[in-house]
Amino acid sequence: MKFIYALAFVAAMALTAEAKKKSAWAVQRTNDVKDRLERTYGKGLVGMMHPETGKIDPTRFGWDNRVTGGAPLGSQLSITIKKGLTIDGTTNSAYWLGFAKGMQYEGLTKD
């Protein structure tokens, strides 16, 4: 019984312990993300703030996406299978079609 109490005490201490030293990878990753955001939104992330309220404006997060021109991902995605058959990538049917296609396992073939 004493062993169980000791084990529970050690487990509780392990859960409450915090890392004192950040890893070099975590520091480097944080600096990389900070640099990338500052290149996009300006020093101190001033381009991310609403000019009147001074708080972060979520509507500004899309304008920096140069791939879709600021549109949400998937909003311009449509695939034409054959003439007259186009699948819009934003619908539920496209999601389930992709899910079903992804669940088909063909296995490895030997040549």
SS elements, strand count: 2
Structural class: mainly alpha
| Multimer state | single chain
N-to-C SSE series?
HHEEH
Low-pLDDT runs of 5+ residues are none
Biggest sheet architecture = 2 strands, antiparallel
Q: What is the typical, i.e. mean, pLDDT?
A: 76
Distance between the termini: 61 Å
Please report which band the strand proportion falls in: under 5%, 5-15%, 15-25%, 25-35%, 35-45% or over 45%: 5-15%
Taking all Cα atoms into account, the compactness measure Rg is 25 Å
Question: Helical proportion?
Answer: 25-40%
| Side-by-side strand order of the widest sheet | 1-2
Gross morphology: flat
Helix segment tally: 3
Tell me about this structure.
- The protein has 111 residues and is mainly alpha-helical.
- Strands 1-2 form a two-stranded antiparallel ribbon.
- A hairpin with a 2-residue loop joins β1 (78-82) and β2 (85-88).
- Among the domains are: 37-70, no CATH class; 73-101, no CATH class.
- The chain contains three helices and two strands; from the N terminus they run ααββα.
What attributes characterize this protein structure?
111 residues; flat; mainly alpha; 2 strands
Outline the fold blueprint.
Elements: H1 2-16, H2 24-41, E1 78-82, E2 85-88, H3 92-102
Antiparallel strand pairs: 1-2
Entry summary:
Among the domains are: 37-70, no CATH class; 73-101, no CATH class.
